[in-house]
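Appendix B: complex inputs.
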Amino acid sequence: MPHHEFECSKCIPERKKHAVLKGPGEDLTSALPAGYLNTIPGSISERGCAYCGAKHVIGTPMKDVIHISHGPVGCTYDTWQTKRYISDNDNFQLKYTFATDMKEKHIIFGAEKMLKQNIKEAFKAFPNIKRMSIYQTCASALIGDDINAIAEEIMEEMPDIDIFVCNSPGFRGPSQSGGHHTINIAWIKDKVGQVEPKITSDYVINYVGEYNIQGDQEVMLDYFKRMGIQVLSTFTGNGSYDELRAMQGAHLNVLECARSAEYICNELRVKYGIPRLDIDGFGFEPLSDSLRKIGLFFGIEDRAQKIIDEETARWKPELDWYKERLKGKKVCLWPGGSKLWHWSHVIHEEFGVDVVSVYTKFGHQGDMEKGIARCEEGALAIDDPNELETVEAMLKLKPDVIFTGKRPGEVAKKIRVPYLNAHAYHNGPWKGYEGWVRFARDIYNAIYSPIHRLSYLDISKDEIPTDTGFATQKMVSDANLSETIVSSSTLRQYTGKYDSVSDLRKKTYPTFERQPVETA
Amino acid sequence: MEDSMKDRIAQLENHIMKHCLWQFHSRTWDREKQNEGILTKTMQLLCDEPVKRDTPADRCYWVDAALLAEAFKTRYPWLLKMDKADIKLLMQGLKERMDYVTITGSLNLELTDQHY
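Resulting structure:
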């Protein structure tokens, strides 16, 4: 096994098995780091906890719900608004967050009464919202508050209310991934099958593992609606609580994030016989293949092809403008989980960048299998890195840009490496054809931003050139391009709007005749 | 000079690894079903044999197989020159290789975990 040992982690020998180099001839049977294990003492991990994984990542994107944490206010504050999962109901779930604000006295005397009071106050403050998710935290789990019993009492007293309880305290697993599992399984066990679905199409899907980051879900919804497909529910971005209680009515589960959401699809397959189709919404080719697969499944592949042709004609010249300027740039692809494999091949293929490292904070070995299989030779794969390791990797690999979260991103800036927010995006959505061009534009802006060139100079010691003027992005990016490329009449920069999502909400769609139902 | 069977299998394997997700379901039992379902149907499509697709599960295998067969034919022109017996041998070899890389030779310790 081609393990990689970081200089800074020699004092933590257990870390060695968490990093491998994909060398020539290496495959998954010889190169795979350990994963989803308890954090090693002494390694300052940057993982989120299982409560964060359940609430912040999976639960809260659900839009028409009061999301309340039963615990200290800090747990809630730290999981509030830091990921841009917008919704088409004026972002209710982003604007408001709720906490019972447990304090020391509640640890001693219990906090069930306070929880009940908080629930009533929350519904009173927002009388139009009738659904709630309650998230257990370490504090309320350790004192043994029976949240389910309180929820049952409330639902008896207030019959128009429905409450989902997620018992995933922070310590329930090595990382936030433990919370993903818990909430997925709890939802299907406790809530799916409670509501009768309203079917309006012959082609009905659940869109699972999509969190509507800056509008991703709405972009994909646009394609599905243009194909005449009814999206019965989205788990969970921009998703509605009651629609998600009716998931059993779909003909197909379309699975986007096969890390956190595959379990719910597997359970729906076992319990209701709904098959699962894994798709990729990022990148022209993977997205086109995904639309074609869904089209083929329903026998409406012509509708998928129409969208692919229209969108490709509209956006490909813009994608290629950026590709010419991004070719050969080195990228550290350091997201949390699924984007490590969603992007590792397609950014090389469609943006021309070279992935020199992949990492995952909370992914499992299955995520690493996909990521390593998809990236090119020579990439360094790291599981659950600590901050010193990422700094060492950046100094060694000298990436032109890294795609990661805010915390490691800010560290990268300090050593003059530009970063893009892989979790919440810079100027998303990044899904869909237009979204993919927006991603390319963000990479271009990151790499060629004049600020990075200026910041390389230290005015206390470096010689400041006075004989050259200010270099714009284009002067730098086009310096070594051929005249044919620079003056191409077909290639062009992004021409979409600043906001590419709001118009989708006003759009009207064609109606497709439904097939008559056969009667015996 | 014609590529050897092993090289050809490696090319097809590389395509699957770079472009597909179906081979990486989370548990051994699931991966066995996926490899069997999709690669068998891909072989049938490449050999112009009838493909069963009357259940939702079969339809799912079939759509992945349809895209895979099309990609193989487009990207690897040597496939079009092979006779059906050789295609079957090739696909059998590919299936064995995929089973090894994703199941029997896999270093993923979660594959046999009974719980999610």
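The longest strand of chain A covers residues 204-210.
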